[in-house]
Design a protein that fits this description.
Length: 343
Amino acid sequence: MKQILQLNTEKLSLGYEEPKGNLLLRKTVSEYLTSKEIDASPSSILIVSGALQALQLISVGLLKRGSVIFHETPSYLNSVHVFQSAGMNLFGIPLDHEGIEYHTISRLKRLHNGALLYTIPSFHNPTGMLMSEKRRQQLLEVCKQASLPIIEDDVYGDLWFDSPPPKPLKANDKQGNVLYIGSISKTLSPGLRIGWLVGPEPVIERLSDIKMQMDYGSSSLSQYAVAQCLKNGMYTEYLERIRKELMYRRDVMLRLLDKYFKHIASWNIPEGGFYIWLRLQSEIHTRKLFYHALHAGILLNPGSIYDGSDQHHLRLSYSYASIEELEKGIIMLANLCKKLRTK
Ligand SMILES: Cc1ncc(COP(=O)(O)O)c(C=O)c1O
C-alpha cells in the first residue's frame, strides 16, 4: 500500500469525488467486472463505503417502511440490522444442497408481497455454500417471472480454491433485475471501506444522490489506493496468495474436525470463502455451549445469530485465528461438547 502512494502521488487529489465515486476507480472496477462476464459501464457503478453501505442505501433509497425482504435462511442479513432498523420485515427461505429453494419464491411473493430478495450465491455467510450454476439460472428466471428484484452479495466471490464459482447472477441479468454488490473487505482490507454497487443507471443515480447527502462520498485516499491495486495487477497477485493460504487453513481445520469432532458433529467442505457450518449432535444446545465456551475464553458464533430458531449450528471461521489458536480452540471446544453431552 505504501508503495502505491509513493509511486503515483502526482495523480493523487484529495478533494471531494464525483457522486458515484472516483472515475478512475469506476473504470477499473468496470474492467475487473468483465472478468466475471458482468457488463457494467462506469456510470452504472456506485462506489460505496463497503458492502454494508450498499445495503443501507438500498433500504433508505429504494424501499418503503414495512417492505418484505426475502433472504436465505440462515443469512448474514440476520446478523446485521440495516434492513430491520429501516423498518423492513425479513422473511427467510431455506437452503437445499444447491442454494436457496427457488420453487417457493413465486408463491411467497404473492402471499407476502415481497419487495426484493437478498442472496449470497458464492461462499455464503454463514454456511460457506456455493450456489450451483443451474440454481442460479432457476433463481434468476423465477425472480424475473415474479418481478422480484435481486440483491446479489458477492463479497466472497474471488475467494475460490480449486476453480472459480459459476458466473454471478448479474452476468446473466438482461432485464436489470439484479443489484450487484462487491467489496474488497474480504480480500484486500476491510479498513479501507471500499465496495461497489452495480445496477440500472437511474437507480445508481438516485442512490448516489443519497450517498452524497449521507457522507459526501467514500474516502478519496481509499478509492485511489484500490484503483491502483486493481489496475497494476497487485490485487490479482494478492488474490493468488490469499487463496492458497485460505485453502491451507481450510484443510488444517478439516483435519482438526476429523480428529476431534468425528462423533460430535457433521460439516460441509467449503470450496472457497471463510466458513465451515458445523452441525452439532442434537443433544448439544449451542446456547448452553456458548456460555460455557465464553467462560473458557472462546467466543463462538452460534447459528442463532443467522437464523433465530437455530440451536445446533456453529459458524467456524478458518480465516483469522493463527493455526495454533485454531487447534487450541477446536480441542477445547470438542472437550466442552463432550462434557455437555454427558450432562
Ligand atoms: C455476506 C457479507 N456481505 C457484506 C459484508 C460486509 O462487507 P463490507 O465490510 O464490505 O461492508 C459481510 C461482512 O462480513 C458479509 O459477510
